[in-house]
Amino acid sequence: MDKTTTTQLQAGTASQRVRTALVIGGGIAGPVVATALQRVGIRATVCEAYAGTADGIGGGMGFAPNGLEALDAVGIGDAVRAVSTPMEGMVIESWNGKHLGEFGNLPGVPAQRFVQRSDLYRVLNDAAEAAGVTTLTGRRLVDAVDDGTQVTARFEDGSTATADLLIGADGIHSTVRRLIDPSAPDAEYAGTHSFGGWVEDSGLPDTGGKMYMSFGKRAFLGWQVFEDGRCLWFVNLPSTTPVTVAEQRAKGAEFWLRTMVELFREDANPAVRLLERTDPGELMFAGSMEFMPSVPTWSRGRMVLVGDAVHAPSSSSGQGASLAIESAVQLARCLRDLPVDQALATYEQLRRPRVERIMKATARTNARKAAGPVGRVVRDALLPLMFKLMKPEKSAWQYVHPIDFAAPVA
């Protein structure tokens, strides 16, 4: 090969490198992937559908150590540690108060942490801003045109934006997923819909950093009491049909609080006490629990999916945010080191096996939450045995997943 041909090939490869990116969605994956892209020299702009960011929205959540490890790779981990607290484990009970099992943090694995979702949003968006990311609000994507060298996004307000790559971080009901593949699957209903709330003065003892979970007769309750007496709770209500947040709100907080009190009336857990002390104005409506089935097409041309848009385990996994962050970091690495077509293919090869394995494990948890009368008896009988036979180290692969951000991607 002569010198001229070699130079032409190198120039062609360079022309396929991504220099600018539009990130659709400003939740969790969006600010992280934008920050990571800025760190590798790709100018990123986040386009958020709503008039403001998600700062100040949402309740508490568990945050897995692998998510923090991924944030460490791009310099954000300590900021999240500063607004979160370690969780010491989980305790599982039956409707009558029977202890079914307990598991703590794995030996040698950092503790899972508890964080207010609003604090997490704020920290991630602050990190993106500090990295030089531009965030545009009120930009709801309706269409995108890929001409082979760039992608032009068109928004509901009539504005447009163009970049080398469009990244769909727009959640489980992703518009970008439909643009990439009109036949792509939609989110599936996990069999329950959810509510949450805070009780300022629960009158309950501190749970010592542990989250308690009760498989009630007719619904599922989770709660954690903090040193100051405040209690965070959430409820999953089994239902044969999905319910949207708008439908929940239409019936009103008082209706749902009364309904939940009656559903838990026979149970030995503190649900009734917590529900009766919850301010209706502070009830959090979460709608249906959903998950993404396997998505056949992760990218097309110069459009690609990340986070819940392509792999959303239900909230039972405790891994949704962490998996989204891992994928955001890995996508940036691939785009740094490879031409765009190779980068997107390699990104999918790195991520698909791991995320689909976790999603399959979560499906079993959802089935236990929505168990009927017979299933409930079988579940409560088998869970103690399962905990005795369980080898916690076998699940360590979920929580230990280091990413060497500096290492080149082959």
Automatic annotation (TrEMBL):
Keyword line: Monooxygenase, Oxidoreductase
Keyword presence, Oxidoreductase: yes
Domain called FAD-binding: residue spans: 21-183, 297-361
Alphabetized Pfam families for the sequence: FAD_binding_3
GO molecular-function term, one example from the UniProt record: FAD binding
Claim: Transmembrane is one of the keywords in the record: no
Superkingdom of the source species: Bacteria
Name of this chain's protein: FAD-dependent monooxygenase
